[in-house]
Design brief:
Belongs to the aldehyde dehydrogenase family. The protein is built from 15 helices and 22 strands. With about 475 residues, it is an alpha/beta fold. Strands 14-15-16-13-12-18-19 form a 7-stranded mixed sheet, with helices on both faces. It has a 6-stranded mixed sheet with strand order 9-8-7-10-11-21, with helices on both faces. The structure holds nicotinamide-adenine-dinucleotide.
Amino acid sequence: MTGDKTIWINGVWELGSEPGLPVINPVTEEEISIVLSAGHDQITRAIEAAASAQPAWASLEPWRRAEALRAIGACLLQHQQELANLISLEVGKPLRKAREDVEGAASYLEYMAQWDRRIEGEILPADNRDETILLTRVPIGVVAAITAWNYPLDLFIRKAAPALIAGNTMVVKPTEVTPLACIRAIQLIAANDCLPAGVLNLVTGGGAVGAALCSHSLVNMITMTGHRDTGKRIMAAAAANLSRVSLELGGSAPAIIWKDADLDLAADAIAFASFENTGQVCTSSERILVHQDVHDDFVERLVERANGMRVGNPCDDVDLGPLVNRTHFRKVTHAIDLAQTEGGALRCGGHGIPSLPGNGYWVRPTVITGVTQDMSLFKEETFGPIAPIIRIASYEEAISLANATRYGLSAFLFSNDYRLIMRAQNDLRFGEIYINRSMGEALQGFHNGHLESGMGGEDGKHGVLKYTQIRAVYHRYT
Ligand code: NAD
């Protein structure tokens, strides 16, 4: 893709006018591509194109917008292998999981297409005779979408599908770390004429391009997935124009393994929730609070599962590929080393796998016991394949430790005590709680962070309605 035109404005491809950023293969540390960045003029023109196209797009019959979404889904599926190859190459994700990402994106488009006949208004009784009040839902306008690197195609579609079905237009800025699958998807959308010119626009580049989008007065809403600190910067920039924000940020999910839990079920679920995508999932279980009565038994089962996972080249039949880049590798390996210095015991895993290519960012599924609240591993999102185990003795201790974070995205609980489950459901301060199962959201659910994990939320009814605003119309008919 080096040298490709990666800026798409009003249906026309352009070369980025600013220097490019390299995309690195995390298996070999070789450069896959250089993606040129959008210049200021290009960012402005992309936003203006979205603003010009918006009224016509909003006045199309909704089923026509649904047809466009379905056409995009069909395109993605037709090119499933090609897109999966790109995702696997840039993220380091096992190929079969990258194929699932493409299927997931197509299902998402189909689900959101079905909202064409479901965005409803309300009729209210008025205070005056011969008057009716209508509440209708109208689009917000121009939406800027900014994505993170861990699910490059899905995060783009998770924003574009609901925003477009609701009648908004969009400027997308994919992550600079793994932009290729998103760029290719938009090339396919363009080549197949899935959308009218200007409805979707693409600008590539890093944080500076994102910041320029966020501070433009024609951008009515910013929908972003990424780090908490970036979310705070975006919110501050949005304040200048009072643009709406929807921020899907990080997490530090607790998982409570109560003494009556089905330990095999819990170990399977936590192995997936801690190590899937090499731990690079916002809902990953990052603090595992295990009741002292079952602590050793649970740890043994988790270690067995961790040791059974295959780490290696994403093209092979493996469970985990490498971490995404060197910066992240340093952060995760430092977290593993520091945890041991601070008193934790490495039960399995760690970094450095001699049989794998020397430059890959390899970290094995890692279990660390003896973790306490004052250790760094407890406090911050590590976003790596690490399962930190904390021993607990009571319900109160479990809840207090689970809630001891400024994040509020997801939490897990394993128990068969119905009363304890119902209590915990109320006591845990998180937006997404998994009881006796691993992570993984439903299309019709609601993936939303409380506290510093963000605001807005995605999926389902609430995930589409957030791209609308309510207009109240007072009808007098005397
Ligand atoms: P990041 O915040 O570094 O980057 C995210 C995006 O923001 C990138 O496109 C980047 O270019 C852009 N950006 C950076 N500075 C900006 C600025 N000042 N203004 C506007 N845009 C700017 O995050 P990341 O490292 O790509 O992603 C990892 C984080 O994402 C983790 O914390 C993870 O938990 C979170 N995440 C959350 C969810 C969720 O749904 N809640 C999903 C996936 C990832």
